[in-house]
Each structure stands twice: as C-alpha cells, then as structure tokens.
Amino acid sequence: MKNFEYYNPVDVHFGKDSVEKIAQLIPKDKKILFTYGTDSIKKSRLYEKIKTLLMGHNLVEFGGIESNPDYTTCMTAVEVAKKEGVDFILSVGGGSVLDASKFIAAAIHFEGGDPWELLKNKKSVKVKKAVPIGCVLTLPAAGSEMNGYSVISRRDTKEKLAFGSRYLHPLFSILDPVLTFTLTKEQTANGIVDAFVHVFEQYMTHHGEGPLQDRMSEGIIKTLIEEAPKVMTDPDDYDSRANVMWCATMALNGLIGSGVPQDWTTHMIGHELTAMYGMDHARSLAIILPSVIARQMDSKFEKFVQYGRRVWHITTEDKRVAFRETWQKNTDFLRSLGMLTRFSEQGITNENFDEIAERIVKRGEKLGENKDIGKNEILEILYKSL
Amino acid sequence: MKNFEYYNPVDVHFGKDSVEKIAQLIPKDKKILFTYGTDSIKKSRLYEKIKTLLMGHNLVEFGGIESNPDYTTCMTAVEVAKKEGVDFILSVGGGSVLDASKFIAAAIHFEGGDPWELLKNKKSVKVKKAVPIGCVLTLPAAGSEMNGYSVISRRDTKEKLAFGSRYLHPLFSILDPVLTFTLTKEQTANGIVDAFVHVFEQYMTHHGEGPLQDRMSEGIIKTLIEEAPKVMTDPDDYDSRANVMWCATMALNGLIGSGVPQDWTTHMIGHELTAMYGMDHARSLAIILPSVIARQMDSKFEKFVQYGRRVWHITTEDKRVAFRETWQKNTDFLRSLGMLTRFSEQGITNENFDEIAERIVKRGEKLGENKDIGKNEILEILYKSL
Lengths: 386, 386
Prior knowledge:
homodimer, alpha/beta, Rossmann fold, two-stranded antiparallel sheet
C-alpha cells in the first residue's frame, strides 16, 4: 500500500427530511449566499422550504448556475458576495452548483489577482482561505458533497479544469434521497454513470495494491449495477434512491483511492469533450472509458479480469476471453443506461481529435497510473471511440 | 436505509515513516501530555524517536497506562495535566492508551463533579469540551484512532463502560504499519479478532438494509481472513501489516455502521467478562460471538447465510446446512488465531453467569438489533459458551 493522508471533515446528514435540520447547522449571525441552478428547486418546492426554514437568517440569492458551471457566472457571484459581505455559502442543487460555490468561496478571499489562477496554475497557486459552505444535494453524481474538489469551465477559452483544497470541504452536506425522486431518467442515469466512472478511475490500475480498497470499489460498483435498473423503473423507490446516493458520495470521498494508484485518463479526456462539444459530463465519460480499457489492456489486464470475476461473475478460464467478456458486460451496462459509447452515434467526426489531444498534453504530465499516456495514446483512445 | 449522521474529522497520516510529520502536526505553543503504556515503546525506540522529533515542544510524560485502562490511572493523569496546564494530549500506543487519553481529555474540562458520570450516566451527561488529542498508533485493533469513542474500566467496581463524543475524535492519527512489526503473535491475533468482531456487530443484523454497507463489511472481513495467516507467519510483511491496520481503522470509523441496524451484544457481554475475570478483550469477544450467532439464529438467519455465501463461498443449497457450515468456518477462523471459544477451555464455570447477566440488564435497555436480548437470553448465550 502507498502512503496516504485522509482528511474529510464533512458533517453528513443523510436521510428523509434531513433538510429540516438546516437552520441549526448554520450560525444565525452569518450572511448567507444562497446558490442554486435552474428553476428545478422552485418546481420541487425545495426553494420555498429552505426559505421558510431559514426565516430569520440573512439570505442573498444567487440562482441560475449552469451545468458545468462557468467561470464568468462564478465571478458575477463573487462580486455580489463581496458587495453584500457574505460569510457563508449555502449550495442547493447538484455538483455543478456546489462546484461553483466552492470556487466562489475560494475566490472571495483570493489575493493573487485572477482566481482562475487557482485552476490554471494549481500546482503553485493554492487556496489559503475560503468562506464556509453548506450543501443540500439534489443530484447524486459528482461526489462533491464529501470532498474538497471542484471543476469549473470557461466557455470563452474552451477549458474545463479541476482544483481542490482542504478548505473547500463543505462544513455540512444534507443528503435526502427524497429530493432525488423528481430527477429525470436522463439525470438519474448520468449520475449513476458519473459515480461508476469515479470508482473505475481509482480502481482500474495495478493488480494487488490495496485488497480492502479493491473490495470497497467493487462493492460500490456492484451496488450501482444492482440499484440502477430499480431507480430507472421506479423513481420513487426510497431505498434504491438512498443506495445510489450513498454510492455516489462514497465513490469520491477519497476513501477508495487512499493508498492505491489512480488513473484519471477518462475524466481528463472527458472534460475536453465537454469543453469542445458541450457534451454532458457523464456522456463524455461513457464514450471514453471503454476505449481507455481497450487501449490500456496490457497494464490493466489482471485487474480488469479480477473485476470481471468478482463483479460480473465471469468464470471463463481463459483470461483473454474473460477480459473481452468483461469489457462487453461493462460497455453493455453503460448502454443500458442510455449512454452512447461511440462518437459516430453522436455525429462527431475525428475533426477536432488532434486539438483535444494537444490541449491535454500541453498541460504537462502524461496521463495514466504509469504516466504512459501521451498525445499518441490519447489519439488512439479517441479513434477507438469513433 | 435508516437516517444517519456521519462526521469524522480525523486527519489520518498512513504509511511508513509518517511519524516524521509529528512536529508539524502539533502547534509549537502547546503544552503536551505525552501518554503511553508499558515499556514496549521504549524497547522499540519509538519513545526516543518521538522525544527527538518533538524537541523544542513542551512535554509532560505520563506512562504506565494499562490494558483496559483504569479510571484511577486516568484520574491520576488528569491531576497531572491540570497541575501542569496541559492543553494537548499525545497518545502513543494502542487503543488502551488512546481510550485513556480521550477520557483524560474530557475529564480535564468536566465540570459536573466526578467525570465517571460521563460513562455511568452517558445518556444525560455529555462532554462539552475536551483537550485536543493526537495519536500515534502501535496496535491495530480498537479503531479508536478514527472515532470519538472510548472504553474505560473500573477494577474497584468491576465495571467496563463506553462513552463517546464529537469532541473526542483525535485531531490527527499517525498509522505506520512498521510500528506494528514488533507486536507479539498474541497481540497481533487479538487485534485482528477485535477488528473482525467490530465489523460483525455492525453487519450481522437484518438482511437487505444497506447493500453497500454490507459489501464494505464483507470486504473488511475477507481482507482480514486473507491477511491474518500472512502476518501471523511473517510479522515483517509490510503490505499485510498495512492491510490489517487499515482494516482495523475502517472497521470502527462509523462508515460501515451508518444507516444500518447494529447489534453490540458480543461487546456488551465481553466487557463484563473482562471486568469479572480480567479476560483479554479480544478473547472475551471470541468466546461470546459464536454463541450470540447460535442463540440469535432466527433473526440473523438470512444475513448469516449471505455472509457464508459471500465471504466463505459456501454453496450448499439447503440454507440451514449452509448456516451451520458458515458457523463452523467462522468459529474455526477465530480458533486459528489461537482464540478459545469455550469457557471450559479456560477453566471458567457458570458460577458468575447470573451476576454478569444481572449487571447488564440493570443498566437498562435490552441488547440486540431488535432489543430482544434480556437476562434470560444473555444467560442462554453464556451457557452456550460453557
């Protein structure tokens, strides 16, 4: 096992009606920036409920945060927050609203010029202070509710970058599965795929490095595979919604990746697809993951066969055949959730592949747990997905 | 899934040489009570190393904390700490030293008379403030390094009681597997059994309540079963030591028990055996667990069969036979670690059984996930272990 540090102080309140506790979780003297996305929290009456619960608290609203939250939107919120003297952010929504809130929280106190530096030069420019954040989660997917990471997009420069800090863990996260009953089938499927791929990228590397971490990862994946058809057919099934929600949180709270190698190639390329084509995040992952596995077959061979045997109960003795059978099962699972796994299915050609690969490599380090995925390998992965 | 709260702010530093970071983890201006147990940290030179690393820090030593730490010892430490104006406790040792340190940390600031009230009347008397604690762990077993719980014994009244608080999570815990190389075979086995039973008591209840929690629990147990023979035959195997250490921490950091029923019957009866006979903690659990499973067969039937199928690969179709086969495998595993699973093997008769059962029931609530284990059932369990 590799050396690691694990620190996760998020106060998680999970379950039906947990939102009722919100007033006691935020000190009365705080001036709160209440961030949210589209009108969905108004339709579901969550907006109204929170306003009622926080009666007597000092609220400033900032709605309209888009999916793949944009730097420009965030900077507008920073201006509002500074003008109003905000000292708490309450994020109500999915990972996009929360990621935006994290950036806003860091940007309010940033003293090194343009806060974009926190993403652009994340190796040297660090968060030193941030406004505390509370979260009410409505979409299980990103895992942002129990970590200190955030991903922000810039549509003007076609960039989508991640950053993180110990100061950006939410102070609390309220996870009520009932709030996810109103998600569309597409949102539900996207969330499951996002969580699924998070686990994959911390798990599908070398064989034999962390037996407990492996089993926890396999446990999350098996549970997602088991619960996915249930929530897709019965969106009001509380237990299945709860299981999916907890899986998504556990997928990216740092535990399964502690002490083991990781390979974020799929996310790194996926982010570029979103930046380039405006493709939904989960859908960008679903198109890339199968090709990453195929391209990296040699280095991931033993681990992928273990995955097939333990998760998909593949018993075929010949490991190469078992590998192919597992690959098919894995890809079929993504497709069963409505994911397209080929560019051609979405009318995308190879036209921008070179630019995509170029954008990734010019940021420096090679990708993959062995740092062996450079421009040529990225191109191979992209072409495999055509 | 049941509603739950999960909060665990411990800053974990895991791996070889992590102790080197200790000076930067404790603020320079703190007056530190350096707590430890027997001479083993002197023999292993850890004592010396820590003194060197903390040169320049203000240290007050308090050694000699015994296994199943005693109230009287702790109260002596509280006196020293108050006299010296201690505002940080550094616990170096296993769960006993850390549990004692937690009690000391709470007792220093306790204003309601005798701090024993925190254990005796834990439902009404709560910790409101505690001195911050840092931990260097030398024995993977109790899981105290990543939770806010503590168990303290009183030899004068033959009591062994637990209490817990959000204020008692260690600020940091340093987990270096190398520090466990010098444990005796008996200490190593005891630690594995303690962790194993911790998982069991959060897992072996109703069937179907938390599929992810189940798989995480099964993952810890499978890993312990796999690693146990390795560390027992090769005590310097770093990876196996690391896996056992991380399993023991994960077994009681609150995660696997979140959202699911729990049944701490084995620990509750085990504590009484330690208080009554001075029996080692793990050994008290090993003698009780098999009988709890046998006595509670009806309510735990489906879950125990699931455990047998998933962990021990029992394929026998007849569930009642599968149950018995699993029970045997489980008991054999405990015995493979040198545990005795019958009182008669230790020369203990039924003489004090009534008093033991009486002591538990007079504390109030019945035991078990269904609260159906009262005096008669406790006696049945004890007699099954004769």
